[in-house]
């Protein structure tokens, strides 16, 4: 073996050792990916909240999102486009935030945003359909819509979607006990896992508040709430169970 090849192999092994010991590289390698790029009008209810979270248009004047997306500063939403860089977004400021308040544990990660002005509905902008009953999602095919991190560790410019499979809450809790410290699930949660043919898919940073719908429909069953640790593959993602809050959603939309 020539000295050149030997030196090359030593350098290569050294670089691999650095990568394997660096947590940021590990996180990068386990980021959720294999998300499909959405087309215009495919998810007309998808809303970008403050540029950092997702949301779902439930009426022309209200957006449903995760409560942990609520900042202290003034809020705004963008709707109607599928690229962050597009200059054609319809933008509305948020005139009021309504967070579900409950003293019981665990925390309810759901909020309504009242827009300062309603948005015009079209093929590119439309409301999501709320469920009319509690839906058992165990084994059900689902789709989550996202603008968050991609496999290269960068925030996506394109709207993307990932197909997942619902999992029974009790099964999910067994996994959560092992991998998600201090996370307790209840009827206010839903869990979804990657499909076997696409194990590297799921939600990640920047996807909070986005919709989880029944695949092939606009029926909203969940709100993106907790991504798996380090956006790891194979582990379940946790969503707010929208069915659990239907009365609260409808009451506030009607009475505000």
UniProtKB/TrEMBL annotation:
GO terms for molecular function: serine-type endopeptidase activity. PROSITE patterns: TRYPSIN_DOM, TRYPSIN_HIS, TRYPSIN_SER. GO terms for biological process: proteolysis. It comes from the Eukaryota. Residues 18-254 form the Peptidase S1 domain. InterPro entries: Peptidase_S1_PA, Peptidase_S1_PA_chymotrypsin, Peptidase_S1A, Ser/Thr_Proteases_Immune/Dev, Trypsin_dom, TRYPSIN_HIS, TRYPSIN_SER. The keyword Heme does not apply. The keyword DNA repair does not apply. Coiled coil: none annotated. Keywords: Disulfide bond, Glycoprotein, Hydrolase, Protease, Serine protease, Signal. Residues 1-21 form the signal peptide. SUPFAM superfamilies: Trypsin-like serine proteases. Pfam families: Trypsin (PF00089). Belongs to the peptidase S1 family. CLIP subfamily. This is CSON012458 protein. It comes from Culicoides sonorensis. The gene is CSON012458.
